[in-house]
Amino acid sequence: GATGTAPVGTNRNTAAQRVGRAAVDWQSLGFGFTPTNCYVKAVWREQTGTWSPVEVVPYGPNGEATFPLHVASTALHYGQSIFEGLKAFACADGHVRLFRPQENARRLERSALRLNMPVVPAALFLEAVTRCVYENLEFVPPYVEQGGGGSLYVRPVLFGSGGRIGLGPADEYTFMVLVVPVGNYYKGGLSPVTAYISTNYDRAAPRGVGHVKVAGNYAADLKPSMEAKQRGYPINLYLDAREQKFIEEFGTSNFSAVRYLDENGNRYVYVTPDSPSVLEGVTNKTLMELSLDAGMKVERRRIPVEELATFDEVFASGTAVVITAVDQIVYGDQVIGIGKHPGSGQVGPVARRLYDTVRGLQTGRLPDRHGWTYLV
Ligand code: COI
């Protein structure tokens, strides 16, 4: 596809015409890497203590997507790397909008400080993200295809690109943003899956780096999550590292549960773990706010594993998955059923409603009362 050269926001009519024009089979999008037109980057150097301007870097003519890196970069050797995930959507009015990018800018800052990295100012973060989406508008899934969960997934990453062999912070950092058109993270989308509690592993220590989006957290999850998959469970769940008693989060997403307070299902409470080592999810924050809007109660507290069997709904929430319902949880030799009809493939009404609300806000079908969307 043609790469737009107009500065962001100069010609929205042209922008609308570019959406969805890439040679992509929108019907069969999964969650995999595809080269697009380009990625963008900025570099911070200790010498100047400043960030370079944002640079647009095209992928190769055959989709080559490699990046030259110092052989001793601190990202490769010591895992000094953090990332973000957010999404852009084509809306009914033809505009493309990001969802809550300022939240990601703030979290990237918290992650950077924890790994002793320079902060990417929010203005630079928003400029790079917006620019990358704009330069790749052809790859934003068209509005009509969004029933399948399509969006342009935006992946900012900040890493130590300077070389250093003794342990210490790098003298150069690269902030890169790439985009990928995606569909559902799990094949069935919202449909319920069976989760597997990884009882032999901890995800994160109470005062470690579990609350921030550090690359190594995801490396540490690879073996436990692959073991769960080999047993036939697409998603794994961790308990707290200190006592193995309380629900922490899934390998790639936060844990949410719903309890119906009265017999008729007229009062609901949204429950999510309070723990210093769970990732501060933007989707979970959004779901809590939407639950309050809907007159539900929200509880952020410790959740003992024994409480699982008493919930009416459980689901995983995250940017990539949005919401994936969980109706059974394997814990040692026990199978814990969630809700009245575990294993029947039904999605609970609260998960369904929250999902529809989030998607509706993201794609501009519902009024944006909170000011969460951000025009590209
Ligand atoms: C996201 O939900 O955006 C994430 O960063 C999780 C990742 C494993 C896909």
TrEMBL record:
Cofactor: pyridoxal 5'-phosphate
One MF term in the entry's GO annotations: branched-chain-amino-acid transaminase activity
Keyword tags: Aminotransferase, Pyridoxal phosphate, Transferase
Entry keyword annotation includes Ligase: no
A Gene Ontology biological process term: branched-chain amino acid metabolic process
Domain of life: Eukaryota
Family (UniProt): Belongs to the class-IV pyridoxal-phosphate-dependent aminotransferase family.
Protein name, as recorded: Branched-chain-amino-acid transaminase
Species name: Cyanidioschyzon merolae (strain NIES-3377 / 10D) (Unicellular red alga)
Location of this fragment in the whole protein: 91 to 466 of 467
